Amino acid sequence: MSAADFDLGWLLQSLTSEEFFARHWEREPLLLQRGKPDFYDSLVRLTDLEAFISRGDARHPAVRLARGGAFYPPAAFTHDLKYGDEVFREALDLERVHAEYSSGATIVLPAWHRSWPALGRLCAQLETQLDHPAHANAYLTPARAAGFTPHYDTHEVFILQIAGRKRWRVYLPPLPLPHRSQPFAPEDYVAPAVPTLEVDLTPGDLLYLPRGYVHTTTTAEQPSTHLTIGVTVYTWIEVLTEFLQSTVAAPELRQGLPPGFAWRAAVRAELPQRLAHLLQRHCEGVDTDAILERFINRVVAARPRRPQHFLAHHHAIGRETQLSRVRAVHYLTAREQDDLILVLNGRRIRLQPAVESTLAAMCRLESFTPQTLPGDISLEARISLARFLYGLGFLQTADRGDCL
After folding, report:
1. In DSSP terms, which residues pair with 161 in a beta bridge?
2. With the CA atoms of 28, 180, 224 and 144 taken in that order, what torsion angle do they form, in degrees rounded to the nearest 10?
3. What does each C-alpha distance from 178 to 137, 182, 295, 342 come to in angstroms?
């Protein structure tokens, strides 16, 4: 399977994206028990995670330990390594990691999509399809253990069972669709006697949980390894925040509240009518198109920057070098006065207008060489543009595949 196949359709398989969004997205859990233990092998295997943890350069916080709903302090499983005058801090002490894991600790690899290319490709494809940020964590839980106490997440979660077996108990949300500013409060929660869903996930299975659904897990006689793909959604609250930020331009709204507004009864009594007047005055005729355009542009510009390519001899890109656009990157092109703007990986890059037709061809063509690219600039300029965009992670050479 090629990396291009890792997307929402690949995850769901047995139902269409339309069915998923209509029946499950932000609504109810989805359980897919595939009966295909090797389904995720092309994405990641248990041996891949073991090899990553065993690497001599793995350090905290790329690897963390958790038990009973809390993370270990780094000093409990790391040490500093000195090589000459250099000190590599918080490197894994594998003997201590293994000892804690054997006694019940869960090993967590946060944001593992940044370290594992296939997983990074899946998250990038999900972001392209959903327009919401996606991240991936990996969890290795020993036998007869529970990694975290009951809780809900404030993001959508896809659980991918990689190896072993894990029992999931899922309960209805105490707060439907919690915002990221409304984290789970364990002191206020009492789990019902009977869960809404109780299931053993085995390799190849998938469980989707909308944010707010409380869940807890345990392992039995065998350890478990799973991935969680988290999707942090933008809500209408963020759009309304954009509107509120736009009202700063109104002098009337920049006026201070009247003195004594909190404790003088006569002043306080006037506040509701005044607020209603301001809302009516400033909400009527709101340019919703402009607000949404600003919000969308801000979201695109704020997307996490994907790791750029490193090519020690990037000048080796010449007139006949076979190139293509990296499909995983998010980008927009626009004209701004006399400049051409490329929004790429959270950056706004100003380019000369003369390269517009060449850049458009790079975006459109499946593959190309600087020599075959159309445009109004010289071959030398096309080569320089290709080298520049390669360094930004926008282009890749044919021998590197679709990397991040």
Report:
1. 226
2. -100
3. 21, 6, 21, 35
Domain end marker among 211, 231, 251: 231
Q: Quote the tokens at residue 265.
A: 């009864």
Q: What are phi and psi of 240, to 5 degrees?
A: -65, -35
C-alpha 238/C-alpha 181 separation (Å) is 12
In a domain, 299, yes or no: no
CB 163 within 8 A of CB 225: yes
C-alpha torsion sign, points 255, 259, 261, 266: negative
Strand partners, 196: none
pLDDT in tens, 40-76: 999 999 999 999 999 877 888 899 999 988 899 999 9
Q: Per-residue pLDDT tens for 213-229?
A: 999 999 988 899 999 99
- CA Rg, the chain, in Å? 26
Name the domain count of the chain.
Answer: 3
| Cα-based distances in Å from 372 to 309, 353, 376, 399 | 23, 20, 13, 18
Domain that holds residue 116: 3-231
Distance CA 351, CA 335 (A): 10
Q: Are residues 262 and 216 in the same domain?
A: no
**What global pTM score does this model have?**
0.82
Strands (E), 193-326: 197-201, 206-209, 214-218, 224-231, 323-325
CA dihedral 107, 10, 41, 214 (to 10 degrees): 30
Task: List the end-to-end C-alpha distance of the chain, in Å, as a whole number.
Answer: 17
The residues, any chain, with a CB within 8 Å of residue 94's CB and separated by 6 or more, are: 53, 54
Contact indicator for 119, 189 with CB cutoff of 8 Å: no
Q: What is the Cβ-side half-sphere exposure of residue 151, based on CA atoms within 13 angstroms?
A: 16
How confident is the model over 247-285, as pLDDT tens digits? Answer: 888 899 999 999 999 999 999 999 999 999 998 888 887
User: Is residue 279 assigned to a domain?
Assistant: yes
